[in-house]
């Protein structure tokens, strides 16, 4: 059986690392990298660190507006599918690469399998929300990571036979790579950070970086926090460009880092006192590490992190951010085990088994 897997962005590389390791033991996989993240620190380092098979095809699409980028990806992926004749196409998450892969496959009447199906922020202003909703409604197999994700798909009228609660592949990856990160990463020594004595922050979503008022409020909050405790901020290249254009300058203890690889990020997350982010993946990774998270958004698709008391939503409000960090640092209780929310670490095996059944005409 031949599967084409489409990836293009950092979170997808991590998920593909977990799934491809199992998939390639049982079937042929052709890994296609769209080039959505093309910076070496955002892309190549993940393939070398995580032992992901190097992409069989590089499309080199690069950055651009949503329409132009998705359109170029759609055209290029369609040609790949026409050339290699796969049995199915596997896509991950909610990026433009995800939607382009699903559209190209659906138009060629190929089965689409979607990892992380059913997530909803219910905010249609987010491009990621549009991508994930459309991909779910194109998909033949929907691999939901959580029970709330399954409920979302049922409410949208998607056929129950196509929906499968498999668990979260990023939880599989976190469990698998945790020891490797402790063994191989020297990021704490390199950045002169002491365990539990710094905050970790990431900011990259368009709703924050494309709105000067929101970004200024977040930046002000991070700078004020850095006066109390060092704040490590790995900067997405696009965020760095916006920060420079707005003339935002960091306080002395706000440490601007280049994008880091997965193993370094795992170490930074594991040893942070608290994590501040607008990333969906980092919200989960914080919970996996059992470190309090503060999310720079008004909603989250990972609602279970809120229910478990592991995450707080503060939007782009400076005062709310400062108060939430104070609360998180003052916590005396241990966060709950993420396992009951995200599975038993065997999501990848379930996905491979369900893909294998496509040859038998499943689902009918």
Fraction in helix: 40-55%
Distance between the termini: 18 Å
Poorly predicted spans: none
Strand content: 5-15%
Secondary-structure element order, N to C: EHEHEHEHEHEHEHHEHHEHEHEHEHEHHH
Q: Which structural category do the helix and sheet elements fall into?
A: alpha/beta
Mean pLDDT reading: 93
Output the number of helix runs. 17
Q: Strand order, biggest sheet?
A: 3-2-1-4-5-6-7
Radius of gyration, whole Å: 20 Å
Sheet with the most strands? Answer: 7 strands, parallel
Quaternary structure type: single chain
Overall spatial form: globular
The number of strands is 13
What does this structure look like?
The strands form two sheets. This protein has a seven-stranded parallel sheet, with helices on both faces. It starts with a strand and ends in an 8-residue tail after the last helix. The protein has helices at residues 10-23, 44-49, 66-84, 96-107, 127-138, 147-155, 169-184, 187-190, 206-209, 212-226, 237-246, 262-271, 280-289, 303-307, 318-329, 339-342, 347-356; strands at residues 2-7, 28-33, 57-58, 88-92, 112-115, 141-144, 163-165, 199-202, 231-234, 254-257, 274-277, 293-295, 311-313. The chain is α/β, with parallel strands linked by helices and 364 residues long. The relative contact order is 0.13. The model has no long low-confidence stretch (mean pLDDT 93). It is built from 17 helices and 13 strands. β12 (293-295), α14 and β13 (311-313) form a beta-alpha-beta unit.
């Amino acid at each position: 059986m031949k599967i084409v897997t489409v990836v293009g962005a950092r979170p997808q590389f991590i998920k593909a690392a977990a799934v491809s390791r199992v998939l390639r033991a049982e079937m042929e996989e052709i890994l296609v990298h769209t080039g959505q993240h093309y910076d070496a620190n955002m892309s190549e380092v993940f393939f070398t660190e995580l032992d992901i098979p190097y992409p069989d095809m590089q499309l080199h699409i690069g950055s651009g507006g949503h329409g132009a980028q998705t359109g170029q990806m759609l055209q290029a992926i369609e040609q790949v599918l026409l050339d290699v004749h796969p049995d199915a196409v596997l896509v991950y998450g909610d990026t433009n690469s995800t939607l382009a892969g699903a559209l190209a496959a659906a138009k060629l009447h190929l089965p689409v399998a979607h990892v992380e199906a059913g997530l909803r922020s219910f905010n249609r202003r987010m491009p990621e929300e549009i991508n994930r909703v459309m991909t779910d409604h194109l998909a033949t197999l929907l691999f939901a990571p959580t029970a709330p994700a399954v409920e979302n798909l049922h409410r949208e009228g998607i056929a129950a036979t196509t929906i499968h609660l498999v668990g979260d592949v990023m939880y599989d990856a976190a469990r698998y790579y945790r020891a490797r990160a402790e063994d191989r990463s020297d990021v704490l020594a390199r950045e002169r950070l002491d365990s539990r004595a710094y905050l970790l922050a990431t900011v990259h979503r368009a709703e924050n970086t494309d709105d000067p008022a929101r970004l200024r409020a977040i930046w002000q909050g991070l700078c004020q926090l850095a006066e109390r405790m060092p704040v490590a901020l790995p900067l997405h290249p696009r965020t760095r460009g916006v920060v420079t254009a707005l003339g935002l300058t960091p306080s002395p203890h706000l440490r601007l880092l280049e994008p880091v690889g997965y193993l370094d990020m795992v170490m930074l997350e594991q040893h942070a006192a608290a994590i501040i982010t607008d990333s969906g993946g980092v919200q989960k990774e914080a919970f996996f590490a059992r470190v309090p998270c503060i999310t720079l958004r008004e909603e989250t698709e990972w609602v279970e992190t809120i229910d478990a008391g592991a995450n707080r939503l503060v939007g782009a409000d400076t005062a709310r951010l400062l108060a939430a960090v104070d609360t998180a640092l003052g916590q005396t209780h241990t966060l709950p085990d993420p396992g009951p929310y995200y599975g038993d670490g065997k999501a990848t095996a379930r996905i491979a088994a369900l893909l294998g059944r496509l040859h038998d005409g499943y689902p009918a």
